[in-house]
Amino acid sequence: MRQRSRIILYAPSAAITARPDLLDRVAERYDLRSVIIRSPDRTAFELVRERDLDALWLAPGLWGDGQQPATNRAVFPSVPGWDASLHPAYERQFPMQCPNSPGFAGELGAYYAQTANALGATGVFATHQRYHHPANLEHLWGCICPNCWVTAAQTGLDVGEVSNFWRALAHKLAKLPAEQWAQVPVMASTNPLIDWWAALTDMDFPLRWFAWKNTSIESHMLRVRAAFEAGAPKLAFAANCFEPLLAPLVGNAPTTQRSSIWYAPLLGYWSHHVHGSLENLAAWHLILSSQGTRDSILQALATLLGVGAALNDAAHGIRQELYLGAAQAAQLGMEYYPVLNGTIANQYGGTASQFSLAEGLDLAEKLGAAGVIVQGISQLLDDALLDFWY
Q: Which of 66, 79, 99, 206 sits CB 3.0–4.6 Å from 220 for a disulfide?
């Protein structure tokens, strides 16, 4: 019996070309609308279109896979306290292009259009249009190349202010035990952590800095879309974004997504994106403060972000973010297509709670999502062997 949930399937081209019948099997069980294809394999796109499905190309963004135009690489500050005691920041391995690099957005959008047209795609699904996850503390503070110095100055920011802020933060943390962090009066504005930094240090620098960082990504995305539509005016431009809880930290505040045809936050990566980032942020705050323990500071940060109950429960965290994403999509007036990644277990210790895809589909539907983007054929077909083959 066909389930009601509308599905957009994220699939590797190898799985489609080797087993196109998998698409038919998914369509028998779900309302399959589109397929996002990872690599530019024309045969895979033809097989998808033969089934009257939209075929979107997973277009590389500021970093990640794919042949990107040559341009200026981003330059990041040396963060005090970055050392081997931190968890490996997975995304740190990918070199990143500067979103403020002149001409880069236009080149990237033209590349999208040229490739999508050549493939016969119905649109693109842009990914990694952001900075790395906050587990990479260098990327947390954005690019500080000469192009960024110029654009920051246009908003009244001096890139050198970041060092002054770090010193002020360390000074305040040294005097305030983690158990008292939540008692600091905060004016809700950008993000709970950013707002708390501003309140604790009595500096508006964090608010201005991350506003500039998000504006840089938004401006970049608008230019990419304009160049893409100039070369492929009839094709769709869609993009994903970061986990809603920490999105403003990586340049993906909700408003930066207005260039996309839908609001599609990555969910189901709680351990990889959120918990890993909180672990490294806690270790960094511990180094700056020189007091407390990593566990006490981790709990304090989780409390500030309102995810204390989810700290050791990945499933609870993903549910929270599904609700948060739905609220933000409603505020933006955009269709909500959360991105789910099958069954995720907590990788950072604690309870190995799991969040099933079936639960995600059901909750997304209850929250009024237009559909769900699913990363993984195996979960949809209840066939774990597919993970081995593809």
A: 99
